């Protein structure tokens, strides 16, 4: 059923006031802004309730938008807030000292989102099944220990100290670099098999004793870098929303499940996804909404950042800020691999 212009205005007014106050909205409150009588508004609100766009929590109370009504508002009625240049500068300045390590950048993004929205937030670290190793280095630390460092095409950096039974010098580091360049760079993780490492080590002759531990470590770091992780912030902020009181601890438990959270953050083909209430397809989130925006590194979507809050989350303001933060995350991580 196509809504009349007046019904659209009334629905938008109810949604926006409910987002602001969290309280049911009565017909008298809307009369002034709509320039129609209270009886007319009341009749229109009654019809909107009959077709499922509004709900009446209590017989004597005003009305609140249903999840169907909130979806209609987001898709058809909402006017997105424009981020000012000052706000863009403020967001970008928070990332000025970020050095490109994905977990640090995404932890900062999640913290910033939670501060800005007053909701919980989550970030999915870069993941790409086709990611390749872009750089690999060996940094001697002592006679028999060195730091193995790798950089993936997703922007993920991994490092670990490795010890061997032979002395390490600058020539060892050069040999490691040459071997990595010839046999590991631009290769995917699944190609770094045990058999490949063994064959390569066997071809090194007497250098195999010093080099094998570092090659094994390189492969382990690459496999570790290929696993996704989830960073969350601001759980306690959900306690401020009374409509989530009976569900908040179930939401906390849900947010501990990295696989479930990663699935909803990365779902859908679009760069932006808005899941409202039961659309989240999880019982713990029936009264919540999840807004997620994907970020790209080197031209590929490899992760997402998102906000988790009540159904009455301020979509019009949060969506533009979320998109800008996800774009900033992608830019910072992409610069790290240039």
Q: Your description of this structure?
A:
The chain has about 350 residues and is an alpha+beta fold. It is about 45% helix and about 20% strand. The protein has helices spanning about 5-20, 25-35, 40-50, 65-75, 85-95, 100-115, 170-185, 195-200, 210-225, 250-255, 260-265, 315-335; strands at about 55, 65, 120-125, 135-140, 145-150, 155-165, 230-235, 270-275, 290-295, 300-310. Strands 7-3-10-9-8 form a 5-stranded antiparallel β-sheet, sandwiched between helices. Strand 5 and strand 6 (about 155-165) form a beta hairpin. The chain is elongated.
Would you kindly provide a brief summary of this structure?
The chain has 338 residues and is of the alpha+beta class.
Taking all residues together, what is the mean pLDDT? 92
Q: Supply the CATH superfamily name of the largest domain.
A: GAF domain
Query: Radius of gyration over alpha carbons?
Result: 26 Å
Low-pLDDT residue spans: none
Q: Shape, please? A: elongated
- How many H/I helical runs? 12
Which architecture name of the largest domain does CATH use? 2-Layer Sandwich
Tell me the count of domains: 3
CATH topology of the largest domain: Beta-Lactamase
Structural class: alpha+beta
């Amino acid at each position: 059923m196509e809504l009349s212009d007046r019904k659209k205005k009334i629905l938008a007014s109810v949604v926006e006031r409910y987002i602001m106050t969290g309280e049911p909205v009565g017909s008298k409150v809307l009369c002034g802004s709509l320039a129609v009588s209270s009886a007319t508004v009341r009749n229109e609100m009654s019809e909107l309730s009959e077709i499922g766009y509004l709900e009446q929590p209590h017989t004597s109370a005003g009305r609140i938008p249903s999840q169907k009504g909130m979806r209609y508002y987001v898709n058809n009625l909402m006017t997105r807030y424009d981020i000012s240049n000052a706000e863009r500068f403020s967001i970008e300045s928070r990332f000025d000292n970020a050095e490109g390590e994905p977990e640090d950048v995404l932890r900062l993004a999640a913290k910033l989102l939670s501060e800005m929205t007053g909701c919980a937030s989550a970030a999915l670290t870069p993941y790409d099944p086709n990611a390749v190793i872009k750089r690999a280095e060996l940094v001697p630390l002592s006679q028999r220990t060195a730091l193995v460092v790798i950089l993936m095409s997703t922007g993920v950096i991994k490092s670990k100290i490795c010890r061997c039974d032979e002395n390490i010098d600058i020539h060892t580091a050069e040999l490691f670099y040459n071997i990595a360049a010839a046999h590991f760079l631009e290769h995917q993780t699944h190609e770094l098999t045990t058999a490949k490492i063994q064959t390569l080590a066997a071809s090194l002759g007497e250098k195999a004793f010093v080099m094998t531990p570092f090659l094994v470590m390189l492969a382990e770091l690459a496999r570790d870098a290929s696993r996704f992780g989830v960073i969350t912030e601001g759980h306690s902020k959900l306690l401020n929303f009374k409509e989530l009181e009976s569900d908040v601890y179930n939401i906390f438990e849900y947010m501990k499940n990295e696989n479930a959270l990663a699935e909803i953050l990365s779902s859908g083909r679009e760069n932006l996804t808005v899941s409202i209430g039961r659309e989240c397809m999880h019982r713990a989130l029936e009264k919540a909404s999840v807004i997620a925006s994907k970020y790209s590194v080197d031209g590929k979507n490899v992760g997402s950042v998102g906000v988790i809050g009540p159904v009455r989350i301020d979509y019009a303001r949060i969506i533009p800020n979320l998109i800008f933060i996800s774009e900033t995350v992608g830019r910072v991580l992409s610069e790290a691999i240039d």
